[in-house]
Every structure is written in structure tokens, then in C-alpha cells.
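Regression test case RT-17, inverse folding.

Input:
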């Protein structure tokens, strides 16, 4: 399985774990750098049978682990965390070494966004005594659910009745997290777009026609202004395309 560059230089074989780590990610206005990673079929589906796995493959997994390797924290919506069966991160030797070389903690922080706290405490994500994920919620969240979940997770309050993503990013920054990876789902992605909080958009295009009624990579409130991004690189592997777009004016390295 080889991954080759299409842009900016065509034909070069790349090691995603090395190449992604070398890409610049400056802090944006004092807040953490926010990047995404989504996969879609060529007809725009983000899931098949409710999950994204059928759209991927070995090359997609290689890029996925490389992008995660540069993240201090992952933000994910509760629905996606449940559907995709999120678990405590267990980096392999290569990823652990890459993270150490970048000065990052061996295990990234997974932060689940939920105003309702409607999460089953028996989920695999909460069943590692050596790992405590974050739960980002609101002041009005049910106190009983909070008392149960905070036994195995750290609770962050960001907003009164709706999660305020800027407040959430401020708290993650306070905890020392510089690169924040948003892994969806589409509704959460849409909220980040509406708040003009996306610095880097990574999108994998899978050579699959899926049909169905799957959501697009982002939906939700209309952004106050459109944000133009610049294509920084394009890779190809296993007939998949891997694109990286960044805020205009950010160096592609």
C-alpha cells in the first residue's frame, strides 16, 4: 500500500506519519489550531449503514492515524462517539514515538460533546481505569447523569443550555492542548464552521458510490460569512484521494 503525492509535487511516495507532523499548524488568534478529518464516498455519503468504516481501507487508516498523531485532543459529538464505538486511544509504537518527538502526551484526550449527558457509562470509552476522557457539557445538564459520568470522565462546562465551542476551546487551551481534531459528526462540524473555528479541513474521498440518505460532511446553522480555504496538499492511495485545505494565508510547508 503506497501513498503518493499529487500536489504540491506529483509522484513522490509519502509516509503520512512523517509528512503530517511536518505540516505547519500555527495557533489562530491565541486559540488552539482546529483541524478536521472526514471521509466521504464520491457521491457525498459520510457513512454506510450508519458508520464510516466501509468507506475506508488501509491507506485511509494510515492517514487517519497520522492526523491523530498531531492532535492533543479529539472533539467528537456524542452520537458519533457511540455509533463509531470510540475507545480510549492506544497508540502503536510508531505513533507513540511520533507523538513523543512532537512533545505530545502519548495518549490524546478524547472530548465528547453532549448537552444532555445522555451517555451510557458502560461504553468502552469509559472503561479504562488509566484513562479519563473529557465530556463537554452545559450548566443545565442533568445533575444525576453528571454525577454518574464524572466517576470515569472529567466534566467540562461550556455554556448554559447549548455547548459554546469557543468556551470549550478556551478550556482545552488552558489544559495545554494546541491542536484540536474535530471528528464529527456532521452536525458538530457544522457548528464549528458556523463559528468560523476551522483552520484545517482534511477530507478523504472514497471511490465508492453509496447512495442512501447519509448526511454531508457538515450541516447546521449557516455561517455568517463564507470561509475560503487553500488547497495545501493532495495525496492518492488505494484509489482514495486525501486532501488538506487550510485557512488562506497559512503556509502549506
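Golden output:
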Amino acid at each position: 500500500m503506497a501513498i503518493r503525492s499529487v500536489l504540491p509535487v506529483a509522484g513522490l511516495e509519502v509516509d503520512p506519519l512523517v509528512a503530517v507532523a511536518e505540516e505547519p499548524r500555527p495557533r489562530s488568534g491565541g486559540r488552539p489550531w482546529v483541524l478536521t478529518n472526514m471521509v466521504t464516498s464520491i457521491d457525498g455519503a459520510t457513512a454506510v449503514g450508519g458508520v464510516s468504516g466501509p468507506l475506508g481501507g488501509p491507506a485511509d487508516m494510515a492517514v487517519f492515524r497520522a492526523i491523530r498523531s498531531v492532535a492533543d485532543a479529539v472533539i467528537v459529538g456524542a452520537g458519533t462517539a457511540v455509533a463509531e464505538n470510540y475507545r480510549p486511544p492506544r497508540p502503536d509504537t510508531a505513533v507513540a514515538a511520533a507523538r513523543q518527538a512532537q512533545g505530545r502526551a502519548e495518549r490524546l484526550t478524547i472530548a465528547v460533546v453532549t448537552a444532555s449527558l445522555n451517555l451510557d457509562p458502560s461504553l468502552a470509552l469509559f472503561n479504562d481505569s488509566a484513562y479519563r476522557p473529557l465530556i463537554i457539557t452545559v450548566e443545565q445538564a442533568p445533575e444525576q447523569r453528571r454525577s454518574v459520568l464524572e466517576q470515569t470522565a472529567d466534566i467540562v462546562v461550556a455554556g448554559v443550555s447549548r455547548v459554546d465551542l469557543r468556551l470549550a476551546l478556551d478550556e482545552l487551551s488552558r489544559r495545554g492542548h494546541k491542536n484540536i481534531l474535530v471528528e464529527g459528526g456532521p452536525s458538530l462540524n457544522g457548528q464549528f464552521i458556523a463559528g468560523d473555528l476551522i483552520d484545517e479541513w482534511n477530507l478523504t474521498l472514497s471511490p465508492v458510490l453509496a447512495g442512501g440518505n447519509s448526511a454531508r460532511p457538515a450541516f447546521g446553522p449557516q455561517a455568517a460569512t463564507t470561509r475560503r480555504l487553500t488547497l495545501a496538499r493532495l495525496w492518492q492511495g488505494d484509489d482514495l484521494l486525501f486532501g488538506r485545505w487550510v485557512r488562506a494565508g497559512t503556509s502549506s510547508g
